[in-house]
Every structure is written in structure tokens, then in C-alpha cells.
Amino acid sequence: MRQNTRMRTSPILFAAILSLSLAICDKYVTAANDAWAQAYQRTQALREVGRRIFSDPTFSASGKQSCASCHDPARRYNPPNTLAVQPGGADLRERGLRSPPTLTYINRVPPYENHHYDSDEEADGSIDNGPTGGLGWDGRIDTGAAQAEIPLTAKFEMANTRAGVAAAIRKAPYAQRVRDALGSDVLDDDERAFKAVVRALGAFEEDYTEFSPYTSKYDAFLTGGAQLSEQENRGLALFNDESKGNCAQCHRSARGKDGTPPVFSDYGLIALAVPRNGAIPRNRDPAFFDLGACGPERKDKAAQAEYCGLFRTPTLRNVSLRSAFFHNGKFHSLRDAVQFYVTRDITPARWYAKGAREQVIAYDDLPARYHPNINREAPFAGQAPGATPRLSQSEIDDVVAFMRTLTDGYLKDDPYRAERKRAANP
For a disulfide at 148, which of 176, 201, 322, 374, Cβ 3.0-4.6 Å? Predict the structure, then answer.
């Protein structure tokens, strides 16, 4: 008879080992919870600092301009007025090239890629959607903190220096909050102090309640909390219809397969051939062109002709709060912006400048060698002088009425968050 030689652990020893293991686990769990709590508190402190910096004009060379001067919180971080480009510089007499984009929903913008493959929205995940993503009109930066660096020091925006920004944060009444969050010596060095400022601004722009609220009437509609009017419903149908507006091709209106709310952009870079805006001082030089992804602000694609004239598709959320549309602020009404899409090549004389012999200079803000980049898909497909527009005047009104449902503030809170909670606790 074989003897069982396996060791038996006594109940007392087993209990001791278990107790020790639980104590060790408890120690690590407590440490992890403490670390998370500290990180959360640090983020909250930085977020509050970023909120204050955002509206503080002392960070500009003029002492009269803040981030909020161009990104008005009351307009969901859209421009505050009808100007094509906002004043800036040390004396507020400089003018830039582009209309400030909204800062809302920038957390949904993916990093820039030359070739983007989207398997969630496309039946075939191998479809190449081309250049996509990145912040700004030309997609040249990928994070909110990196984006915040640009206006602080751009000569036609806040026009400060890194040392000037560092000096401003040291003098700020909330400087101690920065030291508490990032270390007592974080403001001692100019470069670290500058990075602390942009990090705080980045943290503020990651406040989803403020910048990605999802509280529009359309969000209420998608979650069963509201009904669209007859006109708004017609506008939605036209917006989605590939044979009519076809707006949803680039400004996606449906929820993702995982229930993600639509952000009304595929973030692709596209050439629309928006008319030249004579109100922009740089455009007084007939040899100058803002070519978007291939310059002049973006440098890495300057020699790549296929990127010239391309600008990133913005979100349409809160678009009705804007008074300057497209990258150059050419149009000042949402209806005119839609009308341009529908009749760009049907009534070019309405949109583009004329030459010395009164001939229309089609696509007058893009050199002819880049015209092959211009988008020709619906609603541009089939457009030619004298053709019938895909949308009638009343249908344009319907589309505009629908787009007004994308303005946040209809609801108090994000309905998708409540929806997820209900799903988790049936």
C-alpha cells in the first residue's frame, strides 16, 4: 500500500497565510486608491487653474486678450463675433489667417493620420478615408496641451513669449495651486512654468461636462427624451440622404455601433474650394494662398501637392452659435454656408471673384494646379452652371432647422451617461 507523502497544511498555518495575503493585498489596494485619489485631486486642481488661465488676459503680450477672447464660453467656445479673423498681437492690430474653430468635442478628434481606416462606420474596414484627424484647421497638432501652446506665443494671437507666460503664472493669484499640483519648484524654471500653463489649459479642455456635454435637442431625440419638429425631421432626412444633402458622409449623424453619440464630423481633411476672403489682410497679396494642410502654418507637407487646399472637417455641434463659417470665415450665416455647398458650381458667379474682363475666377482661393484636390462628391456631384440644385430653397431651410437642434443646453445633463447607468443596473 502506497503511503501518501503529500504535505498537509494545518488549519492554523493556512489561516495565517491567508491573513497575511489579505493584509498585503489590502495594503496595495489602499496604496492604489490613494494614488488615484491624489491624481484626481491634482487633475481637478489643474483643471481649475486652466479655467482661470483661459479667461486671464495677463497671459497675452497686450494684457487685453485671453483664450476666451477668441473662444467665447457663452457661444460654446466659438468666435465671439462676426469677424472673419480675430485681432491679436502686442497691440491687437495683427490679424491671422483663420477663423477660430470651436473647442467643444475636441476630445473626440483622433490623432492625425495620412491614411485613416474606420471599421466602426464602414462595412469594409479596409476602406482608406485619407488624411484624417489632428487639431486645428490643418490637423498639425494632436493634443489640447499642444494646441494651447500655439495661441500663447503666435505673433498674430496672444503674442507672448514662453518667458512672459512663465512670468504671468508666477504673478497669478492661483500660482500656489499650480505648485501644489505639480511640485513646489515647478514655476522656478521658465520652460517648466510654460509647460505647466499649457498642461493646465489642456486639463481644462478635458473637462467633458464643459467641452463635451452632449446636451442638445438632437441628443435628447436620440435617447428618447424629445421629438423633432416636422421641419427638423425633414432636415435630418435631407441631411442624411445621399442623393440630396449627403451631409452625413462627412458630418456623421448616427450613433456608433457601440452606442457612441455622433459628433457630426469624420475629421477628414477635404478641399471644398471656399471663396477667397478679402477681409483677411494677408489675402491682399494676390500671390498669397492659405493652403491648409500643405501650409503656410503646417510645414511637414509643404512639398506634397495632394494635401494643398485641404482643411479638417469641423464638428457641426453648436454650429448655429457661430457667425463666421469655414476656415477663413468667409460666410456669416449658416444658411449661406449650406447654400454654397448646394450651388458652388451651379452659380459660381455668386461665390467667386471676377477678373479684369468680368470672367468668373472659379476656386479663386486655390491655385489651378491644386484644383484636382477639390471634392466633387454629392452635393457637388453633377453641379454645373444651369443645373438644378440638389436642395430647393425650402429644403435648405429644413436642413438649417435641423442643424439648430445640435446646440447644447437643451438638456441639463448628458443623457448617454444616464442611459449607460440604466443598462448597467437594469
Answer: 201
What would the DSSP string read from start to end of 130-177?
Answer: -SB--BSTT--B-SHHHHHHHHHH-TTTT---HHHHHHHHHHSTTHHH
Judge if 198 and 227 occupy the same domain: no
Q: Is the confidence at residue 87, as pLDDT, over 90? A: yes
Residue 158 CA: distances (Å) to CA of 10, 94, 251: 74, 10, 31
Q: Report the distance separating Cα 367 and Cα 355, nearest Å.
A: 15
Measure CA of the first residue to CA of the last residue in the chain; give whole Å: 59
Q: Is the separation of the CB atoms in 104 and 76 below 8 Å?
A: yes
179 and 229 in a single domain? The answer is no
Burial of 33 (0-12, 13-18, 19+ CB in 10 A): exposed
Per residue in 243-290, pLDDT tens? 999 999 999 999 998 899 999 999 999 999 999 999 999 999 999 999
User: To 5 degrees, how large is the angle CA 151–CA 157–CA 158?
Assistant: 75
Name the residue with cell 469655414. Answer: 326
Domain that holds residue 258: 217-424
Distance CA(267)–CA(271), nearest Å, equals: 13
Total number of domains constituting the chain: 2
Question: For the segment 121-141, what is each residue's pLDDT rounded down to a tens digit?
Answer: 444 556 778 899 999 999 999
Residue 201 near residue 55 (C-beta atoms within 8 A): no
Q: Is the pTM of this model over 0.85?
A: yes
Q: Using 50, 70 and 90 to split pLDDT, how confident is the model at 1?
A: very low
C-alpha–C-alpha distance, residues 203 and 184, integer Å: 19
Q: List the one residue out of 221, 304, 302 whose CA is nearest residue 262.
A: 221
Do residue 148 and residue 231 come from a single domain? Answer: no
The pLDDT of residue 33 is 61
| Cα–Cα distance for residue pair 51/56, rounded to 1 Å | 9
Residue 317 pLDDT class (50, 70, 90 cuts): very high
Grid coordinates belonging to 72: 467665447
User: 374 - beta bridge partners?
Assistant: 271
